Amino acid sequence: MQRKILVVDDSAAARQRMQQLLEAEYILEFADDGVGAIEQVEQFKPDLILLDRMMPTMDGMETCRHLKAHQIHKHLPVIFVTSLSTPAHIAEGIAAGAYYYITKPFDVQILTTVIKSAFSHVRAYTALNQEMARVVHVMRKVTKIDLTFKTIAEACDIALVLSHICPQPSEASIGLTELLINAVEHGNLALSYADKKQLLLAGTYHLEIEQRLTDKAFAHKQGRVRMASTPKQIQIIVQDQGTGFDWTPYLEFNPDRAFDPNGRGIALANKNCFSHLEYRGCGNEVVAKIYK
Prior knowledge:
single chain, Heat Shock Protein 90, 19% strand, phosphoprotein, Bact_response_regulator, HATPase_C_sf, HATPase_dom
């Protein structure tokens, strides 16, 4: 079944370009401002929104905040596509609940890669969340948990399970997923930032991950996550068996990486998902806290 994308931009030329780029693969609908976008969300029921920021009547930020304030749209992926590219603009967009922030002029390959990544993330989250909804009352009684993981699939499943111990599962699941995937790909599998960027653009990311998981140099490595819940806070410690990395450039949103299909996960977790985030040692251990 074809996915549906709502394109929101006050520029007719921008809407036409998106149509040319995406109509062969997706069902498209269009709006030229935020008011029209909200109407189309209710009528068209898109699976994803491509949203400009600077528009008349209701701009992109107000539109995104309006949608994310309603539970039914909380997990609807919103990708900003805009010329506003300062760190403050990017941080503001992500804080409003955007899945990603792409600056104009954009690379077509990056746009299509990010769209596919968003759909993949939503599919995985929806499937497992439906299962977890049946046992959430049990998860809230958990006070300690200690788990190991090797694959990205295991990391994603564990992140979603642990998120249901947290007061705000949707926000926690995003941050936990980023930290656990980071432990697998950049930690245990020694995948650099540049490596991941090139693999995503080439469409060979998943193949490379599978190959590294069976490589003798990496096959024995595991990640570990420990969670402890008290009446005042939840603490999560994620460890990997890699050599570490310099995490400092990734704690904040950086416009120099605005055109890359990766590189925002840690900043997103730091800004939106946890009360406190701290890397320790060489970078192969991270502590996240959620205050109740």
